[in-house]
């Protein structure tokens, strides 16, 4: 079996991470190398995974290899996918911000704290 290579053009380094996008949530998910090649994901080498940037307003979720272990057992990809689906479902059920009467100026108001319900990555202490 041939080792997987970085998806970035002109890079032939071995892939160590997989990048997927959740366009509806404006989120990029970077995690350990997936066991299978997926058609809508990108395999990245270490340097390209570390230097990943996303468009302004997007969130990045970084799943570390150590974070994919739970209680000494490996968390299956299906478990991670189920978690992502649960987060998406919860965001769909979130109450809509109140809107003014028709014709009023101002439109939708921002939720408390002025932020929308996006996932945010917390940088690792290093």
UniProtKB/TrEMBL annotation:
It holds the Pfam family DUF3499. Keywords: Signal. Residues 85-126 are annotated as: Disordered. Residues 1-24 form the signal peptide. Residues 86-95 have a biased composition (Basic and acidic residues). This is DUF3499 domain-containing protein. The lineage of its organism: Bacteria, Bacillati, Actinomycetota, Actinomycetes, Frankiales.
């Amino acid at each position: 079996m041939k080792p997987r290579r970085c998806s970035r053009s002109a890079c032939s380094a071995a892939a160590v991470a997989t990048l997927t996008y959740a366009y509806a949530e404006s989120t990029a998910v970077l995690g350990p190398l997936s066991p299978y090649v997926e058609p809508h994901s990108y395999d990245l080498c270490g340097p390209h995974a570390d230097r990943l940037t996303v468009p302004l307003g997007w969130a990045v979720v970084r799943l570390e290899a150590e974070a994919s272990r739970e209680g000494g057992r490996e968390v299956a990809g299906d478990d991670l996918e189920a978690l992502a689906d649960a987060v998406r479902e919860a965001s769909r059920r979130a109450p809509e911000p109140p809107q003014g009467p028709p014709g009023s100026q101002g439109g939708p108001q921002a939720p408390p704290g002025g932020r929308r319900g996006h996932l945010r990555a917390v940088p690792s202490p290093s």
